[in-house]
Design brief:
Layout (H helix, E strand, L loop, with lengths): L4 E4 L5 H12 L3 E6 L2 H13 L6 E5 L5 H15 L4 E4 L14 H29 L2 E5 L12 H21 L5 E7 L21 H12 L9 E4 L8
Parallel strand pairs: 1-2, 1-4, 2-3, 4-5, 5-6, 6-7
Protein name: Short-chain dehydrogenase
Pfam families: adh_short
Organism: Neolewinella marina
Length: 237
């Protein structure tokens, strides 16, 4: 993986940050995004300070805007010479019964989680076809398990799973591998959570980073196209 280039949306914290760090640890140069340039730069500086062989560049980009994604992808190509790995990770969650869910909450959830994934894939697929690279989307167990209060989030993540599997069929004969990763409970800052020792039972962000590395190392003939991930020892309800 040394000197390969990755593009990770929503990489300034949480799952995206954990994946970016593991990629850099394995020699991959990474472009991470945030909707804030200062957040992207601060996260990239923290990652570079870890001393991994891979380098990191942070840039402001919004997955809801295709042109924004195209600019960020081109930054990676111009900076590091190509594009080999894409992780469509940026996401948001609004939860509540449908009669209380606002149109604004619905639209933001679908626009970021589902349309944002499309925009990231659309902006990067030509480069991935050229490099015969690997696309990862970060979905959720909520993409197969519906729950009360999850109307918007379930719809977006069911959509990401279905979209990704269709993309996999579209591009595998072009040499591009595609996987969707569907985590359960993860210790992240998602929806304002501040991870602490009480989250030790959850999947950790570095675990998902290692999963990306393991999938990248799979034999070329083998494609785990949909991977469900759960905590090994969930808390008793």
């Amino acid at each position: 993986m040394k000197n390969k280039t990755a593009y990770v949306t929503g990489g300034s914290k949480g799952i995206g940050y954990g994946i970016a760090e593991k990629l850099m640890e394995n020699g991959v140069n990474v472009v991470i995004t945030s909707r804030s340039q200062s957040s992207a730069t601060e996260a990239a500086d923290r990652l570079n300070d870890l001393g991994h062989p891979g380098k990191c560049t942070g840039t402001e980009a919004d997955v809801r805007d295709l042109e924004s994604q195209q600019r960020a992808v081109q930054l990676g190509i111009d900076t590091y010479g190509g594009l080999d790995i894409v992780v469509a990770n940026a996401g948001v969650g609004h939860f509540g019964p449908v009669h209380e869910l606002t149109p604004e909450q619905w639209n933001e959830t679908i626009d970021i989680n589902l349309t944002g994934t499309f925009n990231t894939v659309k902006a990067s697929m030509d480069a991935l076809m050229k490099s015969q690279g690997y696309l990862f989307t970060i979905a959720s167990l909520a993409g197969t398990n519906f729950f009360a209060g999850g109307a918007a989030y379930n719809a977006s993540k069911f959509g990401v799973v279905g979209f990704t599997q269709a993309v996999m069929l579209d591009v595998r004969n072009h040499g591009v591998k595609v996987s969707t990763i569907m985590p359960g409970s993860v210790a992240t800052h998602f929806n304002g959570n501040e991870p602490d020792e009480s989250d030790a039972w959850k999947i950790q962000i570095e675990d998902l980073g290692q999963m990306v590395i393991d999938l990248l190392r799979m034999p070329a003939r083998t494609l785990p196209s949909k991977v469900e991930v759960r905590p090994s020892f969930p808390k008793s309800k």
